[in-house]
Structure formats: C-alpha cells, structure tokens
C-alpha cells in the first residue's frame, strides 16, 4: 500500500501541476473566453478523456506506445501547435464582430480538447516517468499506478473545469464594448498554448 505521506505528497503535486497553465489550459481558457462556459467545459472534458487514455496506457505498462510517441515527438507537437494557431487565427478574425461567431457544437468542442490532449506527447512521457516515483510495490506496480492515475485524472478534471468557469466569469465581465478585447485575448492565449507546445522538450 502507498503510505499516507506519499499519497498526500502526490495529491499536492497533482494540484500544483493542474494549476500550471499549459497547452490544454490555453485551449480551455481561450474557448471559454470566446464561446462561454459550456463550450469551455466540453473542451475540458475532451482534454481529460485524452488524459485518461494516456494514463491508462501508462498504468497498463504499454511501453511500446510510449516509445512510439517518443519517436514521433516533434511531429506530434508541431501538428498540435499548428492546430492551436489555426484556432487562434479563426478567433482573431471574428473578434468584435457584431454577429458573434457561433459556438462550436458539443462534438466539436469535445474533439478540440481531445485532439490537443494527444498533440502534447510530453504529457504521456511525463506520466510514464512521474507516476512510478510514488509506487512502493515494485514487484506488482500496476494496481498502485492505476490508483495514482485515477487520482490524477480526478484532480485534473476538477482543475480544468475551474479554469473554464473562471474564464467564463472573465468573459461576462468583458461583455459589451470590451468584446473585441476578450476575443483577442482569447486568440492570444491560444497562440501562447502553441508556443508552449513548440518550446516543449523531451526533458
């Protein structure tokens, strides 16, 4: 069994990671600022389904999948960065228009989150290195890694939902004549997410 001290340290580390903005958070915040809470939450759900899939691969010990992501590390993150830039351009072009661009459908918002989650191979590699550090039973690590992955997934989902809600509150505050500012800030955040992906190294 994992000790209470190790588990508490793991939870604190997960909270700290969830509070650190990255490409996933950039997409969630940018979407909420532009299209509101519902679109942001659906995007967060897509991000976290992708995260859960990655955690499942790590918990299942599928080393060959992690290795495949590692081999194509640059290609995957370049594609993800290009996608975020494309979204940013679309948001910038529609900024401040009298007729607001329609919010993405539920499937589209969810799909965006899922795509960006898988476009960051560093997340998968990080989990493959991070979770085993808290395992005490090295002879049969899978159950403990699965437990840690589940805890991480719950904390990440709650954190991403909070990012979506906070961004929606900011959007409400910037309504009216500040709509142009909100739209362009949203586009800028997405570009920032792309920059973070491009800056990501293997270590």
Automatic annotation (TrEMBL):
A Pfam short name: LysE
Membrane topology: Multi-pass membrane protein
GO molecular function: amino acid transmembrane transporter activity
Keywords associated with the record: Cell membrane, Membrane, Transmembrane, Transmembrane helix
CC annotations in GO: plasma membrane
Cell membrane listed as a keyword: yes
Transmembrane annotation, as ranges: 42-66, 75-92, 145-166, 178-200
Protein name: Threonine/homoserine/homoserine lactone efflux protein
């Amino acid at each position: 069994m994992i000790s209470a001290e190790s588990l508490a340290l793991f939870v604190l580390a997960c909270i700290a990671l969830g509070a650190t903005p990255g490409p996933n958070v950039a997409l969630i915040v940018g979407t909420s600022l532009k299209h509101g809470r519902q679109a942001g939450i659906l995007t967060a759900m897509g991000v976290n389904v992708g995260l859960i899939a990655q955690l499942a691969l790590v918990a299942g010990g599928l080393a060959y999948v992690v290795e495949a992501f590692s081999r194509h590390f640059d290609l995957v993150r370049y594609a993800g960065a290009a996608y975020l830039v494309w979204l940013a351009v679309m948001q910038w072009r529609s900024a401040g228009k009298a007729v607001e661009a329609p919010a993405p459908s539920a499937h589209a918002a969810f799909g965006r989150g899922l795509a960006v989650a898988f476009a960051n191979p560093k997340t998968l590699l990080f989990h493959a290195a991070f979770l085993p550090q808290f395992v005490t039973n090295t002879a049969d690590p899978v159950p403990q890694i699965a437990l840690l992955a589940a805890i991480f997934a719950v904390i990440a989902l709650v954190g991403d939902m909070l990012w979506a809600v906070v961004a929606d509150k900011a959007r409400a505050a910037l309504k009216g004549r500040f709509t142009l500012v909100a739209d362009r800030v949203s586009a800028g955040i997405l570009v920032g997410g792309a920059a973070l992906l491009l800056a990501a190294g293997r270590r």
